[in-house]
Amino acid sequence: MVDSNYQELLEECKEIIVEYEFTSRWALVEGYHQLGEKIQESDLVIMTRLAEDLHKSLKTLKRAKQFYSKYPDLALLPEGKNTSWYAIVNKYLPETINQKPLENITCPYCKKTFTKDATVAANGQRPTEAKPKT
After folding, report:
1. Is the confidence at residue 86, as pLDDT, over 60?
2. Second label for 39, Cα 20 to 30 Å away, from 4, 63, 83, 108?
3. For residue 98, which of 50, 61, 51 has the smallest C-alpha distance?
4. DSSP codes joined into one string, 19-67
5. pLDDT at 102 over 60
């Protein structure tokens, strides 16, 4: 008798967890979408100050802005509500956030100098397309 009660309790708890995990993921997506809409007209100076005051990274604010620009209507999301902020950032916003030309930058690790045609990827990784300066 205890086992059947326990199994029923276990299944009900699992259902609660699944529902609230889904709800919280979608709430985060909606929140970043609203944030992107709110800061759509903000320039870099304002966004930098907002990032500091909101204790968020500038990259996060740029991504929220990019997200709203690309998907002004959340119904346009390819996966609909079955997505997360992580998936949106990594699957649907692949464009670089900080495309900055590198001008004769020397890598502190390998000591190679790279030309100005390389760009920094949004994920902050070292540029793979950079060619060592000869």
Report:
1. yes
2. 83
3. 61
4. HHHHHHHHHHHHHHHHHHHHTTT--HHHHHHHHHHHT--HHHHHHHHHH
5. no
